[in-house]
Amino acid sequence: MRPRRRTDRFWPLLALIVTLVVAGACFAGGPGEDDPPVPDDRATSAGDSAGADGTMTVDEFQRDIEGAVRVAEEYWTGRFEASGERFRPIRRVIAYQRDGEVDCAGQGLPRNNAVYCAAGDFIAYDVNWAVAAFRQIGDAFLFYLLGHEYAHGVQVRLGIRYSFTIQQELQADCMAGAYLGDSVRSRALTIEDGDLDELGAGLRAVADDPGQPWFAEGAHGTARQRTDAFFAGYRRSLDACDLS
Fold first, then answer.
1. Taking phi first (over 0 means left), then psi (-120 to 50 degrees means alpha), and beta for anything else, what does residue 5 get?
2. What is the pTM of this model?
């Protein structure tokens, strides 16, 4: 995917960041069996050499994070304005490296996570983990990462409350799909050949393990549920996401 007004390149998405509820106030993603390894501290040094795809640098990673945040802010600002409402962007996006370096509602965030914290209205991510994923997977996944976490922030702004985690997560998948699909249709993003197939593969890769109870805390949905939710939003926009 390519964002409008930028020359940054975004490779196909192969995997997604999983989120779960932390202490009733934070949404945090934990690693699964398919998650890439966490590199040592050299992964965050400026100008580090390219990774598996032969092109990635830390400077590119930072530009891509910034671009993904910008597109998400523009999208949700436009959607709120179209409804006659003012949108308040998520306050900040924080990179961290160590267990407990950032906390949400008094609970330290562990490594290998991507988080939306409602208590502080911020998104936080383990930069070593994210850089490793970026290198091994490619950089288009950052659009899903930011889109999914941003969706949790929008849920809070809309006052949406659910009884089970899986409802929040599948709705956030749908909202992330709407954000990407609408941004492609408006030409804020340009989709490249194979991106949709890669998105489907990534959604299947991060689905709950077979036998995971749907009502369990932290449940995100089966491969079919997550794929259906995301692509419903991608094709039909927010009408598919039950935001009423």
1. left
2. 0.77
